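hey so i finally got around to running the thing on that chain from the lab meeting. sorry it took forever, my laptop kept dying and i had to restart like 3 times. anyway pasting the input first so we r on the same page abt which one it is
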Amino acid sequence: MTAGARILVVEDEGFVAVDLQQVLVGLGYRVDHTAATADEALRCAVESPPDLVLMDIQIKGDRDGIEAATELRSRFGVPIVYLTAYADVATVERAKSTAPLGYLQKPFSEVALRTTLEIAFRLEEVARRLRAQERWLAITLQNIGDGVISTDAAGRVALMNGAAEALSGWTQLEAVGQPLARLLPLVDPTTGQPADHPVVGALAGRASSPGSEHKLRARDQTERIIEASASPIVDERGLLLGAVLVFRDVSEARRTRQQLELAQRMSALGTMVAGVAHEVNNPLTFVTSNLHMALEGIARNPARRAAEGDDRRAFETIEEVLREAALGGERIARIVAGLKALVQPPDRLQESADLARALRWALSVSASELRQRARVSTILAALPPVRCDETRLGQVFVNLLQNAAQAIPLGEPESHEVRVSTRVDGAWVVTEIQDSGSGIKPEHLTHIFEPFFTTKPVGLGTGLGLSICHGIIQSSGGELTATSEVGEGTTFAVRLPLALGLPSAPAPPAPARRAARARLLAIDDEPLILRVTRRILAADHEVTTLESAAQTLDLLASGARFDVILCDLMMPGMTGIDLHEALSRDYPDQAARMIFLSGGATNARSAAFLERFAGRHLGKPFDRGALRALIDQLIGG
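ok and heres what got predicted. didnt touch it at all, straight out
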């Protein structure tokens, strides 16, 4: 029993009302008022809000007890117990609409009244706690950052929170009763194919693994990557009631993760490229240098100048073979330089580019792929320098040209065209690469510059090419855009700002006067490089060669001194950097005479060192004229 609870008695028979009041007071309840009409009952409820109303259905006035109970319930939320002589089906059905907590038929006993009231108060307490719990859960659900949607056993939406409404574009009012799998279609983010909906699996009794990613297409066709999981909802007997889907937008997190993965890949690629460049450039140095020396030797050979007939043709053939081999070596050197530029930090790239030269190089590199698929036409205007790194710009054009080629089927080159054009547009240079290929679907066009987005079959594309191109152009202050029509072709437009206002490149130094014969020391762990260095310089200087830094220290300790020391940067044991530090400490005059030759920096320390000594560094394979000029400059200085 709820002692001291206030009860309002609504009864139009005065003596019955007084009798009820006495009985209730005797049971420990308070009865502050009795009322005979609906209006009186409402006034009493305003003056002294009751904890429960004992309501007779047949009362005085225009409104009966059921109507009075309806208004009391809606305005004050007060529970109702009916005490009435009416028990016909129609009256009971009307009374049920007010959700009474008891229904006693007159006449009734005091025991029945007490029991009914105790049960009513108990039910009201349980209902109050349930309402509070529901309110607590509802507020909690609405403030959860993740989207939450629950369904019935047939997969129809029963409930969704605010986050789910925001992510899906559907309101709960619109979504309730709709099949969730149809309302929220999910796509595999890798293949682009419809994905198995987690809710379908949950309704079949399979909870989805947490963390699975899907592409969600919202009501407004906006696409985002979500992380979703679903679980079945069952009662205590194991009966399936429905399912709950919990999901969150991980688009930004996925982009960040992909960028981190890309950065890690590029870092690993940079380490590999640096090592490969060093190993390739060393043999390339003596290959190309020897080829050029052989060509010069033949050209100066008196027998070559005097040769006629078959002998002359033989010399010409030898020259042609050597020249082609030298061109091949130069091409390898450009490829290695291109690989190094691909992984070079942006702040170390050159700021001005000859766009026409980069485009011509890209066309030559892509010629084999293009000629099998289309005719190539070019409209190239005279262009000023643009603000971009030239090597990377060439890579952008190669990628765009290859994309154009791959959009066209093999075997019909006369039926298709790739058109390349350039023009100056105010302070911009615009390059357009247009193909007559299959085109890009509108739903794909907005995503083509996203990392790892590709429409190619699995294994045939990484989805990185256009993303990298977009980043290169954007980092230079430019724009890379695409327009396309399915079946008609695609046009990529590269807009780059003019390089106006950039510091002009220093004028090339005047040719130095050939220095007098000097003592040179060449240090390299590659014997063939030492041999070719001697061949290049021995005619003008006295050349000593050593294969290690340790030998150099021994030689200097014996008293030997040199006008110029040519030193490889990366050597086993003691590197060129270590040797420079040792000479700076013990033989500073000799340290100031060092020129560094390197196949490429392989770590941060060597990269910083080369940047510090940029004026006394030549990359392998080196130009013989540049080497002689640098030696003459150091001797003259």
